[in-house]
Write a structure and sequence with these properties.
The chain folds into three domains: about 20-35 and about 65-80, no CATH class; about 100-360, Aspartate Aminotransferase, domain 2 (3-Layer(aba) Sandwich); about 370-495, Aspartate Aminotransferase, domain 1 (Alpha-Beta Complex), CATH 3.90.1150. The chain contains 15 helices and twelve strands. It starts with a helix and ends in a 10-residue tail after the last helix. Mean pLDDT is about 90; it is low at about 1-10 and about 10-15. The chain is α/β, with parallel strands linked by helices and about 500 residues long. Helix content is about 35%, strand content about 10%. The strands form three sheets. It has a seven-stranded mixed beta sheet, sandwiched between helices. Strands 10-12-11 form a three-stranded antiparallel beta sheet, covered by helices on one side. A two-stranded antiparallel ribbon has the order 8-9. Helix 3 (about 100-105) runs antiparallel to helix 11 and helix 11 (about 350-385) packs across helix 13. It binds pyridoxal-5'-phosphate (PLP). Pyridoxal-5'-phosphate binds near residues 94, 237 and 264.
């Protein structure tokens, strides 16, 4: 008998502690065997607390484990967090691109990493210069001269931007304008932000081409007297450029409304077109998407806003100014019309450093190539999969491509089953069931940092999934994924009745 045979005889494929392949099974620390043995040899403390010197009230139930046990526990858990460093992450709308390690190196320079927000400005001139230059780059790239770096994420930027618009209307005696126009394909944070700012939303309908039309816009606009503004993503969440945006923004401005652009999809435009040129008044930028800083559990976000000269006095404080070779933060005393502070201190400074490092290492030509390659990659995937999956809108896409489950659904296989099959074959699924206006949507965004080879492997897997689905083995699809530590979940139950407390099972 060979050694290999002996091993397989001794251990079942699901070996004794639940491992299979390189997928680790990992229990809670409390559930570990021998978790009642402390990892250090301290003399028995005779019921006196080492911390307080007072009598102990009894065990508080912390697991008693050794250092190696703790290290393994957390390292194993960390491998469950799928990330862009593990593999392809085609999550549409999220721009999961590689984060160059150069950014990390720069952000860890002691002068940046150890700066304290309460330090006097003269001791952090370099840090303020980073923020100032980032403002300048963002202003140049968007064509919008006012920049505030404070917002901590995309949705926070939306809030900052819509509060700026509200403040401007109030200052002009237009506070009665209470309606914000939002397309039916919008990201959920858009209407949510408008409502939090005290507005009511009115929907602009997307046409069969996946875009807004002058007619649908005019219908939503009405006479315009009650319109505060509109919130639109361009390219929109179907991955398509809004071809009538110039005319639409003109009509909106004539009616006295402001154009808020959700800048999460900036990866398709950066270096190619300045959104100020198609009429945008305010836009947030997700530094953690377009400018590569880690996100999705990997780090904090940052959602600066860029605004027109007209709106700049109203945006939040602080901003960094530069005079006589000195950088400093401007607050309400110098910007009395500002809506004030949105948060403590200056924003996610570490993200500002990473984003500027990314911009400077790419340069103007490199950023232009980013958007060109992002659009090329998405169109490559679209062209390769258009005969395998239903494509809802004709023509080329921008930085993400949209497919649906139409044609497979009749065979009992839906978008969710395709996503689960991708998990089985080792791929993180694309964004599914978004945008809401497209039934069974699958939104794929490869980003410019995926090689053709990586996209080809994904395409091959998608093609074989489509073929199996066409052959109609619905039952197999309903049981995917099978090789993951957790199999097919009851997702409705997990969302509606989550188990948030650990209970001992006998
Ligand atoms: C990601 C995203 C947002 C929100 O950004 P967060 O940083 O997650 O708050 C808003 N709109 C669109 C279209 C997005 O893709």
């Amino acid at each position: 008998m060979t050694a290999e045979h002996k091993i397989t005889e001794r251990l079942s494929p699901e070996s004794h502690d639940g491992n299979r392949g390189l997928h680790y099974e990992e229990n809670l620390l409390w559930e570990k065997e021998h978790c009642d043995h402390p990892g250090v040899d301290l003399p028995q403390a005779e019921n006196i607390s080492l911390r307080t010197g007072l009598p102990e009230r009894g065990a508080i139930g912390l697991p008693q484990v050794s250092e190696p046990q703790v290290v393994r526990h957390f390292v194993r858990l960390s491998t469950w967090n799928y990330s862009i460093d593990h593999g392809f992450f085609p999550l549409g709308s999220c721009t999961m691109k590689h984060n160059p390690r150069l950014n990390e190196k720069i952000a860890r320079l002691p002068g940046f990493a150890h700066a304290h927000p309460l330090q006097p400005a003269e001791t952090v001139q370099g840090a303020l210069r980073v923020m100032y230059e980032l403002q300048e780059w963002l202003s140049e790239l968007t064509g919008l001269p006012g920049v505030c770096l404070a917002p901590a994420a995309g949705a926070h930027g939306e809030l900052a931007g819509m509060m700026t618009i509200r403040r401007a209307h109030e200052a002009k005696g237009q506070g009665h304008r209470k309606i914000v126009l939002v397309p039916d394909s919008a990201h959920g944070t858009n209407p949510a932000t408008a409502v939090i700012c005290g507005y009511t939303t009115r929907t602009i309908k997307t046409s069969e081409t996946g875009r807004l039309t002058i007619e649908s816009f005019k219908e939503a606009l009405g006479d315009g007297g009650d319109i505060a503004g509109m919130m639109v993503t361009n390219p929109n969440t179907c991955g398509l450029f809004e071809s009538d945006i110039l005319e639409i923004s003109k009509l909106l401005h004539e009616a006295g409304g402001y154009f808020y652009c959700d800048g999460a999809n900036f990866n398709a435009l950066v270096g190619k077109i300045r959104p100020g040129a198609f009429g945008v008044d305010v836009m947030h930028i997700n530094l953690h998407k377009t400018f590569s800083t880690p996100h999705g559990g990997g780090g904090p976000g940052s959602g600066p806003i860029c605004v027109t000269d007209e709106l700049a006095p109203y945006m939040p404080v602080p901003t960094v100014s530069h005079e006589n070779d000195t950088y400093r933060l401007e607050y309400e005393d110098e910007r009395p019309e500002s809506l004030g502070r949105l948060r403590g201190f200056v924003g996610q400074f570490g993200m500002h450093v990473r984003a500027l490092a990314y911009m400077m290492s790419h340069g103007a030509d490199g950023l232009k190539q980013v958007s060109e390659d992002a659009v090329l990659g998405a169109n490559y995937i679209l062209s390769q999969l258009q005969n395998d999956f239903h494509v809802p809108f004709e023509g080329p896409c921008m930085h993400e491509c949209l497919l649906t489950d139409k044609g497979l659904k009749e065979k009992g296989i839906q978008t969710i089953d395709i996503a689960k099959a991708l998990c089985e074959y080792g791929y993180h699924p694309m964004t599914i069931y978004f945008p809401l206006v497209v039934n069974g949507a699958m939104l794929i965004e490869p980003t410019e940092t995926e090689s053709k080879d990586a996209m080809d492997r994904f395409i091959t897997v998608m093609k074989s999934i489509a073929e199996d689905a066409q052959n109609g083995d619905a039952d197999k699809f309903h049981h995917f994924p099978e090789s993951t530590p957790r199999k097919r979940m009851d997702e409705v139950k997990a969302a509606r009745q989550p188990t948030l407390r650990w209970r001992e099972t006998s």
